[in-house]
Amino acid sequence: MPLIEARGLTKKFRQAVKEPGLVGSLKHFFSRQYRDKIAVDHIDFSVEAGESVAYLGPNGAGKSTTIKMLTGILVPTSGSLVVDGLVPHEKRQQNARKIGVVFGQRTQLWWDIPVIESFNLARDMYEIPAARYRDNLAQFTEILGLAEFMNLPAAKISLGQRMRADLCMALLHDPRILYLDEPTIGLDIAVKDSIRGFIRSRIEERGTTVILTTHDLGDIEDICKRIVIIDNGKIIHDGDLAKLKDTYARDRVIHFQLARPPESMGPIGAGLPACEITTDGLRLSVRFDRFKLAAGEIAAAVMPHVEVVDFRIDEPEVEDLIRKVYLGQLSLSPDAPQTGVLAGA
Amino acid sequence: MSGLRKYSAIARTSLEITFLYRTSFALNMIGSIFYVFAMFYLWQTIFLGSPGALGGFTWPEMKAYLLVAFLLNALMTWFAEWNMSVDLREGRVATDLARPMDFQASRFASAVGPVPFEFCSAVAVGAVVALMFGGIALPADGAHAAVFLVSAAMATLIKFGLVYCVSMTAFWTTGTDGITVGRAAVQNLFSGALIPLIFFPDWLRAVAAVLPFQGMVSTPALIYLGKMDTPTTALMLGVQALWAVGLILLGRLAWRGAQRAVTINGG
After folding, report:
1. A210/A236 same-domain check
2. pLDDT tens profile A305-335
3. How far apart are CA B187 and CA B203, in angstroms?
4. Does the residue A292 lie in any domain?
5. CB nearest to A113's CB, from B16, B97, B263
6. ipTM of the predicted structure?
7. How close A202 comes to chain B (CA, Å)?
8. What is the distance in angstroms between the Cα of B20 and the nearest Cα belonging to chain A?
9. N or C: which end of chain B has fewer CB within 10 A?
């Protein structure tokens, strides 16, 4: 049985609609107009224990709303949701015991008191047995490097320190499920790496299930095996990350740096009929389908005609892939694989 | 009860944070001391104009009444200023809800944490003011004092229930500043904090009698002064208890409704 199971999960909000300007405000003051916004629209998904899922979508797509329903903070309008045998909003507190939540945009730490005291409060709130608390705290302090700011209040530490402390706090009670809402937002590379490494270790060592929303594609590639994409409240893709790349990110671009501008493109083009060739001064770029041609074959076709000083190969980035999905330039339906749309965008 | 420990941890932390904001706390206290002085001089003038008892109050009793009102208003001040709409706007409520805590109970814990400190500071300040104005009436005996403390505790519960209910409106309106100010104004009038209810015209006193506010100042103050006989005292304590329980339950009901109705900010 899956750990998380959502069927037809829907959340509708009533939004107040106001016309612009003073007149609009005045109208709004006397008679309010509302319209329904469907933030999450009949979505189905299930997550097995131990899975790590990236939950992606443009701003306002319904990601946070879904996370809030999963954590029991919001009550679904319709549909069913079961998390580890519980309906989260009905058993919010019991559910809360089994989950850890990190919201990148706001802290769980108490602003005014030393970080260590926030951890102690977590111990009391989650009723963590003393020995387990001591072990976890010691371990996390070391891995995340918390010792240097443990006695400072959250208000006085940097964003990177705060995120590491937040992550520690969310995991002290060994939750089965960890919800991460943009955990690396605004962080430098070193801190991102440390946070991603830590999350990975929890997945591997403790079998923690991770649901991650992010706009940082590095988070996804480092942590998640599966991606689910939501847009306008509907799930538009749910599948394996590697498969997604194989299906949609087939193109590679090989860039040659030339010693002299090529005299004529004719012979090169003739040798590579299935490729798209572009030149820009001393640069020659060839776009190709990596399942049809190897980079070596391209090089073999180009080298006899020009003097190559240097070359490099661009892999399509997941980022481009996702961006195209968001922009509606790529439809992710398994029946209609597309090629030649991604690399070097 | 093992569940109690987490709430006492919240209460302790809340007290600790009050200490951290000692400047703000002190300024708040100084503000209310000025207010007490103003009230004292105002009523002194009134009593000077009509020597003897006024509405059944002697001047020493009136001084005691004003100081008891000051004391009761000082309790849970920090919580009373809590603005739920800010918490909602900044998404802090979501953080609270992700924890295995009852929302109202944890709010109560953080409201009640600073109360001992607020109580001691207000008593100290009140004692100084009392000495400056030549002493105040004290409760008739230990029993009166004890019943007063019970009544004061219930006054604080009513205050919690009321502020919590009012803050729930933040789920339906965007700002609660207006509602908070309105609540304070109505409360000051109908609790008897500005003028003892005995001075009200009959119809206004009838209104005050059916509202929860009299239990916040008037009832404990009159018990302190021994102005009510035993059956009346018992009845008024019962009314206080009913309001305290009623408002706390209403708050829970409102919270349930709120969870369904609501958008919590942040996508």
Report:
1. yes
2. 888 888 888 877 666 777 777 776 666 554 4
3. 17
4. yes
5. B16
6. 0.84
7. 20
8. 8
9. N
